[in-house]
Amino acid sequence: TNDITLSDVDTANGLITMTAAGAITATDVAAIDGNVSLSAQGLLTATLVSAIDSAATGLYNVALSTTTGGMNLVSVTADDDLTAAAAAGNISIGLITAGDDVTLTSTLGNIAESPVDGTADVSADLLTVTSSTGINLDTTVNTLNASVTGTGTITVDETNDITLSDVDTANGLITITVVGAITATDVVSSTDADAN
């Protein structure tokens, strides 16, 4: 019913689900052959969270959410998909890795790397990221969907080729830097301004 620290929570074959009326600090949460679901009503800190497959036979996901306070995702790994949604507050990203898709949503805040270190913060096949005030990430992904719904910039540094499937801001500069090729399918900054 209050804040909780998950200092050492693990399962060899099963689901891990935690719902808290306050903040969650997940120091070490690991599911082998199972999903992880953490839902907070305060700051959600994921120091070390994983859902992995012991024998490459299943598809295991990590789902993180909070209603307020934002998120600090230090290290999160998902065998298949990873979702993180903050209804209020920013999302800071250390290192998140997924075998398939990563979906990040900050309804009232920004989504940015922390620390700013020049190495990939998100590794996935498809990255879908939505923020109201800005996005700043280093990535290793194949396809990017990114949207800033309010005033804010999109800055992405990609380590390989990338397809920009749907990238848009309501009012802000879009900067995509890649080591390889860019395929820009749909890229729009909606406000006509010199800074954009």
Essential attributes:
mainly beta, 196 residues, 10-stranded parallel β-sheet, 13-stranded parallel β-sheet
Entry summary:
The protein has 196 residues and is mainly β. The protein has strands at residues 4-6, 9-11, 16-19, 24-26, 29-32, 36-40, 44-46, 49-52, 62-66, 71-78, 82-86, 91-98, 101-106, 111-113, 122-123, 126-131, 135-140, 143-151, 154-158, 162-171, 174-178, 182-184, 187-189.
Note the main sheet.
13 strands, parallel
Give the low-pLDDT segments.
Answer: none
pLDDT averaged over residues: 94
With helices defined by DSSP (H or I, 4 residues minimum), what is the helix count? 0
Instruction: Please report the total strand number as a whole number.
Output: 23
The shape is globular
Order of helices and strands: EEEEEEEEEEEEEEEEEEEEEEE
Work out the radius of gyration.
17 Å
Protein described:
With 196 residues, the protein is an all-beta fold. The protein is 0% helix and 58% strand. It contains no helices and 23 strands. It has strands at 4-6, 9-11, 16-19, 24-26, 29-32, 36-40, 44-46, 49-52, 62-66, 71-78, 82-86, 91-98, 101-106, 111-113, 122-123, 126-131, 135-140, 143-151, 154-158, 162-171, 174-178, 182-184, 187-189. Strands 1, 2, 4, 5, 7, 8, 10, 12, 14, 15, 17, 19 and 21 form a 13-stranded parallel sheet that branches. The N and C termini lie far apart (46 Å). The mean pLDDT is 94.
